[in-house]
Structures are given as C-alpha cells and as structure tokens.
Amino acid sequence: MHNPIPTHILDFIQTNHVVNIAAHTEQDFWAANCFYAFDQENARLIILTAKKTRHAGLMLENPHIVGTICGQIEKINEIEGVQFSATAECLEDKQAEKAALQIYYQKHPLARLKPSDVWVLSFNTIKHTGNKLMFAKKTIWERNII
C-alpha cells in the first residue's frame, strides 16, 4: 500500500487527460505527450504507446521518467498543474494488461480502434502547484514515506 494522494491532487489528475513525459538514457532523451487514464488505486497513469516509438524505446532502457500535467489556462489565478517522477513499465502480463485497458477505455473509448502497447507510469513523487486557493501553493506527495 502507498501513502494516500491528497484529494486536491487526485481531483486534478482525474479531470485532465494529457500527460507530458520525458525519458532518457546516457545517449538520448525525448519528450512526448500522451493521453492517459488514472488508476487511482495503484497511484499510476495508464498510457498507450507503441514500443517502437522513441520515448518508449528509452523507457524500456531506463524506466525512470519525469513528467507534467497541466491545463491550458490563461488567467494566472487559475494556474494548476503537477510535476512528477515515475517508473514506467510496459505491461506484458495479459491479465494486468486487460485490467489496465478496462480503466483506459472508460476514459478513452475510441482507443479500442487502434491497439497499442499498454504502459503504466507509477508515481514516485508528485509536486502539485495551484493558484486557486493561494498563489503558488505547493503540495508534495511521495509514494513511500520513511
């Protein structure tokens, strides 16, 4: 079991649907935008992306990634977003893949039309910034608190 994610962070992640991720190895780095579904129970995002893509190839070599989720807000007092570190895993187990796809298809039903590899991005740390209640309010969540 992991440390519970604060409600305002959960709400933000659940109401959005695009994540920007950055992956790297010693030789290369790349960023990508992906649609996601949030698996709240396991504190992770589910994305679909082919193993042959540049970012997926990097994640296969080095599963330690970072990313952001943010809305396209114009008013400074409405800015809200998260930065995070996560561990990426391409699901190979058919049962795990089926369970993840069930969550993903609820959020993105049209994705059934284009099968792809299923990945989970398990959050390690999340930093949430929001201006709605207090300017530049920061909340940090970590999966494992020692």
Automatic annotation (TrEMBL):
SUPFAM superfamilies: FMN-binding split barrel (SSF50475). Gene3D superfamilies: Electron Transport, Fmn-binding Protein, Chain A (2.30.110.10). It comes from the Bacteria. InterPro entries: Split_barrel_FMN-bd, UPF0306. This is Uncharacterized protein conserved in bacteria. It comes from Mannheimia haemolytica.
